[in-house]
Amino acid sequence: MTREPFMPRRPRGLGLGFVLAVLAHVLLILALAFGVNWHSRQVQGVEAELWAAVPQFAAPPRQAAPEPAPVVKPPAPAPEPPKSVPRPEPVQPDPQIAIEKAKKEQAQLREQQAREEEQKRQQKLERDRQEQQQREQAKRDQDKRDQEKREAAEKQQRELQEKKREQQDLAAQKAARDAQLKRMMNQVEGNGGPTSTGNAARTAGPSANYAGRVAAYLRPEIKFDPASIQGNPDAVVEVRVTPDGRILSRRLVKSSGVPAYDDAVLRALDIKGSLPPDVNGLPPLFELTFRPRD
Questions:
Q1: Mean pLDDT throughout 96-108?
Q2: Average model confidence (pLDDT) across the chain
Q3: What class is the 205-290 domain?
């Protein structure tokens, strides 16, 4: 762990002083022991044989060797007091450095906030884009379902109209056969007069100016611009009607060469659903000629 530069230094250890003290004590003990042994001598006894009768004396007691003086250990030297280290004066921080540091921290904080805001904005854009794609896909799916429903309804309507036309054609054919049979019976019976004349007129067709009347009658419903084509081509339509002018069926027998004009004429007949009466009555089946510029 690093020591702070401004903390006081720790006092030095006593290792060297302690070693010197121990060494001095050892030398002192050796010197004392050597001096005691050098001054002490051992008394030696003398033996002699006496042939005369002399009194026997006990030998003097042997002197014991003096005990060595006790070794007195010198007191250990007192440890040296720690040297006082002058405490350094605290360094006053530079205010400019603190200001620069605060500015740097604020700039880093602003950058971090800007990054977070940009990340949130990108995430929101991605969510909006995915939601928009989901809405568009849902709309496409709904439009497709609606288109399929419309096509199915139109197909069903066409089938119903076609079936109705077939029924009307059958009814018109039956009416025409009945009228033809009636005329033949009248001719066989010799029944002339107005009835025979009227039947002959119906078989021959409408009057000369009837086609013009029908064209004027249907013109508001013919949605076609004559200026879009050159010339004045004619379209011939076979029409089957009831005696009161109700249209049972219509069929294009000759095209004008302009499909858009042909379709416009047929749609106009379907919209009207009937034809105006003729002065001589209407035959059950006849042809009408239409021209875009008439």
A1: 90
A2: 77
A3: alpha beta
